[in-house]
């Protein structure tokens, strides 16, 4: 009886291992971005903005990227860090201090003028 239980446990373990291997292969196939860098289009998709906006941010040097012969590449971690930094800028605004809000709005307006 103990032998049957051990055999069943071994069979169950083997089936679970096979399932894990299949799941791992499936994860690799469905993974959208496997490379260390993303293209501008992939980076825009990753952070949820348009392709044209990411190119504008690159042009203004407001987003980190690698320039390889005119081709713009982005590291995922750099994009994550950049988004965190942008979030922190907004969180740093003290809405109870009008000068803090005014400084932020003026900076945004100056950024818009640079583009025009």
TrEMBL record:
Keywords: DNA-binding
Molecular-function GO terms, alphabetical: DNA binding
Keyword Cell membrane: no
Segments forming domain Helix-turn-helix: 38-85
Chain segments carrying region Disordered: 1-33
Key word DNA-binding present: yes
One Pfam entry name: HTH_17
InterPro entries recorded: DNA-bd_dom_put_sf, HTH_17, SinI_DNA-bd
Biased composition, class Basic and acidic residues, residue ranges: 1-26
Domain of life: Bacteria
Name of protein: DNA-binding protein
């Amino acid at each position: 009886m103990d032998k049957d239980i051990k055999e069943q446990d071994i069979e169950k373990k083997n089936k679970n291992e096979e399932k894990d291997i299949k799941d791992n292969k499936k994860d690799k196939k469905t993974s959208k971005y496997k490379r260390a860098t993303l293209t501008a289009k992939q980076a825009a998709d990753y952070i949820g903005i348009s392709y044209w906006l990411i190119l504008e941010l690159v042009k203004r040097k407001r987003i980190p990227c690698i320039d390889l012969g005119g081709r713009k590449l982005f590291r995922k971690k750099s994009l994550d860090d950049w988004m965190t930094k942008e979030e922190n800028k907004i969180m740093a605004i003290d809405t109870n201090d009008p000068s803090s809000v005014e400084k932020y709005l003026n900076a945004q307006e100056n950024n818009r003028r640079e583009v025009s």
